[in-house]
Amino acid sequence: MTDLLSRIRPRRSAAKSPRERTWKHLSPLLRLLILTQLAFNIGFYAVLPFLAAHLGTAIGMAGWMVGFVLGLRTFSQQGLFVVGGSLVDRYGVRPIVLVGCVLRIAGFAWLGYAEQTWAVIGAVLLIGFAAALFSPAVESEVARQAVIWEEEGHGSRTRVLALLSAAGQAGAFVGPLLGALLLAVDFRTACLAGAAVFVLVLAGHIRLMPQHIPGRIRTRQRGGARALLRNRPFLALCCAYGTYLLAYNQLYLALPDEVQRATGSQAALSWLFALSSLLVVCAQMPVTRWAGDRLDLRRSMAWGLLLIAAGFAVVAAARPAEWTGIAGLLPAAGYVVLLTLGQMLVVPAARAWVPDLAEDGRLGLYTGALSSVSGLIVLLGSSATGSLLDLGLPAAVPWLILAAVPALAVALLPHRPGKAESAAGAGAAPER
C-alpha cells in the first residue's frame, strides 16, 4: 500500500496548476536565490543604463574613454566569471555571495562619489568583479538544486531555471524605472539606492543562507581547468551558447542602426527593449512548460537558435523594400520578438545542461566558464559584426550572415548528454 501511494502522489502533484507546481514546491533556498536574482538586477539596472551619460556629461570623459570604461566593466564581470565559479567550488556559495555583495555595495558607493577618471575606473572594476563572484554562485546553486527538484518528480529542471531568467528580466525592467526616478535628484542618489538594494540582499543572505548546503561538495584539488578544456561536449555547448549571446548583442549594435534608418532617431529603441523584457517576464514560464513537455535540452536549444536565425532573416527579407516609419519598425519588432522567444528556449536549456556535462564538485567552475567562454566569443564576434555593418554591403547581406550564425550553431550542439540524460518532460527523472 505504501508503494502504491508513493506512485500516486507525483501524479496528484502533476494535476495541480503548472505555476503552483513550480513555485510551491521550490525549497526555501531556491526561493531565496531566485528572489536574489531579482534584487541583483533591480540594483544593477537602476544605475548601469545611465552610466554612459553620466561619464560623458557630469565627468566630462571623451567618447572613447566612456567606451573603454564600459568595456572594462564587461571584462571584469563576464571575463572573470570562471574565476568566481572556481572560488565557489572551493569555498562554498555563502561566503562568495556575501563577499560579492560587500564589493558591490562598496563599488556603487564609490561610483556615486567618483569625480576623476581613475576613481571611476576603480569603482567600475569593483562593481564588475562583484558580479563575477555572486552570479556564478547563485546560478550554479540554482542549477544544482534544479536537478534535485527534477529528481524528486516535480517536473523538468528547466522550469526552475526559467523562473531564474524571468526574475532577472523583471529586475532588468524595474531597475531602469527606479533609476530614472532617482535621477530626478542626481546620479549619486541612484548609486546609493543601488547600494542599498545590495545591503538588503546581504542582510537577507546573512540571515537565511545556510552555512553549509547539503550535497554541495567543496573541491580542494586543482586541475579542473585542464579537464574543462578537454571536455569537448561542454566546449561545444559554450560555442553554441556564445552564438546566442552574439545574436542578443545585436540589440545594442545592429538594431540601433536599423531603428535609426527606419525612423530617423533611436527613440523607439526603449520601447523595443521594454517589449523584450515584458515578453520574458510574461511568457517565459508558459514557453518553458511547453518545451519541457515536448523537447529535450538539445532540441530546445536547437529550436531556440533557429527562431533567433529567423528573426535576422525577417529583417533581411524586408531591407530591400526600404520601408520607413511605423512600417519600417515592424521587421525590427519581429526580430526582437523572435530573438526573445529563442532566448526563452536557449537560456534555461543551456543552464540546465551544464550539470550533466560538469565534473563532480566543479559546477561553479563550469557555470562560470559558460559565461566567460561565451563572452569571449561575443567580444571577437562583435568586432567582426561591427566591421560587417561598415563594409557597405547590400542592405540584406549583413542580416543574412547574422541569421546564418545561430542556424549553423545548431550543428555544434552536443549529441551525447553527459553524466545523466535530462528528461525534459514534466515529472521525468534522469537516467542513472
From TrEMBL:
Membrane topology per the entry is: Multi-pass membrane protein
Domain of life of the organism encoding this protein? Bacteria
Q: Where is the signal peptide?
A: none
Gene3D superfamilies per record: MFS general substrate transporter like domains
Transmembrane feature ranges: 29-48, 54-75, 96-113, 119-139, 160-181, 187-208, 229-248, 268-288, 300-320, 332-354, 363-384, 396-413
Q: Which CDD domains match?
A: MFS_MdtH_MDR_like
Q: Where is the Major facilitator superfamily (MFS) profile domain?
A: 29-421
Q: Matching InterPro entries, A to Z?
A: MFS, MFS_dom, MFS_trans_sf, MFS_Transporters
Q: Which PANTHER family match?
A: MULTIDRUG RESISTANCE PROTEIN MDTH (PTHR23517:SF2), RESISTANCE PROTEIN MDTM, PUTATIVE-RELATED-RELATED (PTHR23517)
Q: What is this protein called?
A: MFS transporter
